[in-house]
């Protein structure tokens, strides 16, 4: 892609700080809604992870960190997002299995399932951030 030639318009207000965001793991979980009911169960998550893992692993039982980076780029949006291969690789053998990936995403699922209903909704998957103390480029007085 060619570099952006867009320039800031003099006097224009900067884009506001995003206060509601989707973490990459939350975005992945949201895509696992198999029955289009706007919520994701653990069973839907596991089936989705198995399908997505298979796109990189094929018939292999595990993948290396480079393959995991390819998986993360495709399914999480970037090769360098959380969860990192180091957090997923529970036994530190430099290989990632589907079971390890599911275990890591079960942790995310449990954190996002704030009402402990066994399913996560879009509202539960959103992360609310506070605005920075000072706007970029402005000094505190």
Structure summarized in a few sentences:
Residues 100-135 form the EF-hand domain. By secondary structure, the protein is an alpha+beta fold. Helices cover 40% and strands 11% of the residues.
What labels would you give this structure?
141 residues, alpha+beta, two-stranded antiparallel ribbon, 6 strands, globular, EF_hand_dom, calcium ion binding, EF-hand domain-containing protein
Total domains: 1
> Could you give the order of the helices and strands?
EHEHEHHEHEHE
Rough shape? globular
Distance between the termini: 41 Å
Q: How would you explain this protein's 3D organization?
A:
With 141 residues, this protein is of the alpha+beta class. It has one domain (20-128). 40% of the residues lie in helices and 11% in strands. It contains six helices and six strands, in the order E-H-E-H-E-H-H-E-H-E-H-E. The chain has a two-stranded antiparallel sheet. A two-stranded antiparallel sheet has the order 2-5. Helix 2 (42-57) packs across helix 3 (65-75) and helix 2 packs antiparallel against helix 5 (98-112). 19% of the residues are buried. The mean pLDDT is 89.
